[in-house]
Amino acid sequence: MAKSSFLVGLVIPLVTAAPQYTPDMMGYTFFCPVVDSVENITGDPWQAGASGAGGAEMQLTKGHTVGTAWAIGGGLGLSVGEIISVDGGLSGSVSETVEDSVEEAVTLTCPSGDWHCSILVYPGVTHVKGHMKEMKSDDSCPSGTKTNYDNVSDGDKYELTIPRKDEAGNGYWEPVVCTCKNSDHWADNGHPEDFCKEDCALSGH
């Protein structure tokens, strides 16, 4: 007669694979920047130091650095590089900062009159608008992503101007004559249409 044997009290451990935690399981929601519109515009001007009385010639000889300006969404933590990587068309045409370099002196003439003039320089910039889009599990993002832990939400908007540059890396700019408002006769008929941003050094009354 065969003998039967029983294992009493034997504990056999159950082996299971360690759980694979994904970002969603940890409470993360990811967002990717989306570019909605791109437009080349004229940026806020800077004023050159040159000035002169009516009929005088003025020379623009110095450069100026133009930087990126955020109108909306500066707190989202986005970089200009991330915005550029989202819209490939921006890569060769803009830069976070651009030098408005003056390789040769530019001469402008203050129109004849009893006023004084100076020079405003308008930089060329690219106006970019966009928003943050919540990513699904199978979405990819061409730039760095943000999360809800960065205080970013779906639909958050951003808007900025980025300096434009040419193929040589130089900025686009346009100098114009402006009327000095700290001089007499600044409101006379025929004065230059643009008004200077700063007081001018007056001479040649």
Walk me through this protein's architecture.
There is one protein chain. The chain has 205 residues and is mostly beta strands. The protein has one helix spanning 80-86, and strands spanning 30-42, 46-53, 57-60, 64-67, 69-72, 97-100, 106-109, 116-134, 146-147, 157-163, 173-179, 194-195. The longest helix has 7 residues, at 80-86. The radius of gyration is 31 Å and the shape is elongated. The model is unreliable at 1-22 (pLDDT under 50).
What key phrases describe this protein's structure?
single chain; 205 residues; mainly beta; 8-stranded mixed β-sheet; two-stranded antiparallel sheet; 1 helix; 12 strands; 3% helix; disordered N terminus
Shape: elongated
- Radius of gyration, taken over Cα atoms and rounded to an integer in Å: 31 Å
Major beta sheet summary: 8 strands, mixed
Number of strands: 12
Strand content: 35-45%
Question: SSE string, helix = H, strand = E?
Answer: EEEEEHEEEEEEE
SS-based structural class?
Answer: mainly beta
Number of helices: 1
Distance between the termini: 133 Å
Helix content: under 10%
Low-confidence stretches are 1-22
**Average residue pLDDT:** 83
Sequence-ordered SSE layout with sheet pairings:
Layout: E1 30-42, E2 46-53, E3 57-60, E4 64-67, E5 69-72, H1 80-86, E6 97-100, E7 106-109, E8 116-134, E9 146-147, E10 157-163, E11 173-179, E12 194-195
Parallel strand pairs: 11-12
Antiparallel strand pairs: 1-8, 1-9, 2-8, 3-7, 4-6, 5-10, 8-10, 8-11
